[in-house]
Amino acid sequence: MYLKSSNNSLEEALRIFESMEFKDRVSWNSILTGFSQNGLNEDALRLFAHMRYGEVEVDHYAFSAVLRSCSDLGTLNLGQQIHALTHRSGLESNEFVASSLISMYSKCGIIEDARKSFEETPKDSSISWNSIIFGYAQNGQGYVALDLFSQMKKQKVKLDHITFVAILTACSHMGLVEQGCKFLKSMESEYKIAPRMEHYACAVDLYGRAGHLDKAKTLIEAMPFEPDTVVWKTLLGACRACGNIELASQVAGYLLELEPEEHCTYVILSDMYGHLKRREDTVANLKQSLGEGDVRGI
One Pfam family name from the record (predicted)? Predict the structure, then answer.
């Protein structure tokens, strides 16, 4: 309960955990997973070390959590050591452990080892498929991700909302705007999966990377629910990449209403105004030096 409340409650969760006279596997897994999911990765690694040297059996929940922390920290060597532990424990091919291994190797840029983990796990559910599609998408191999998606459908593996986040990410990174839009539109009509906020965020990123800011804004306005900060931040990032200060100012206004104390919004907007001011100063100096007629194209 405390772990899922907020970051401010993590200390209370840890206090209760430490006060327990007998800590079983469930309590260890709860605190370990909670710390890992809340980004306290170094604390999660320390907890895992204590767990290992105690008399508690390390199961697939614990391995999945600690591998997630290795993934977020980018600690390849430690991740490989834990991979060896999963092998000795006979849990290497567990779909949750395999999925965490795939994510860890992918985030560390070792896509070949991610693929090995994928090939060694059962492929009857979407868990490992989603991880490997994400892995290829994040490593700039979107066409391999699309091919895996096709294989997944051929093998009649049930697609879920995470599958479409993965494939939309692949389309976004490859600039496949038309194909990405088809996937988004087909979710509900063909697969009976209602698009969620994260799917719209992916689609906004898809349009933004391609420079279609108007289409991204239109998509946000047509969403069946109010956009969250992730969607607006995605559009703001696209505005910065395209240098559209006018739209960026509007988006920043929405963000500051939702998160008035979020300093990143101020930083991005300030940086954009800074670039605009420097450009205007440069043009003014060139006009003064060369004459108005010579710099009409600037």
Answer: PPR_2
| pTM for the predicted model, two decimal places | 0.82
Domain range for 168: 140-192
d(CA 36, CA 245): 37
Round to whole Å and give the CA distance between 136 and 130. 10
CATH (domain of 65): 1.25.40.10
Claim to verify: residue 108 and residue 2 sit in the same structural domain: yes
Q: Do 27 and 90 share a domain, yes or no? A: yes
One domain for residues 173 and 214: no
Environment class of residue 280 by beta-carbon count within 10 Å: exposed (0-12), middle (13-18) or buried (19+)? exposed
DSSP state of 224: S
The per-residue pLDDT for 284 is 52
3-state secondary structure 227-272: CCHHHHHHHHHHHHHHCCHHHHHHHHHHHHHHCCCCHHHHHHHHHH
Q: Which residues of the chain have pLDDT under 70?
A: 6-8, 275-298
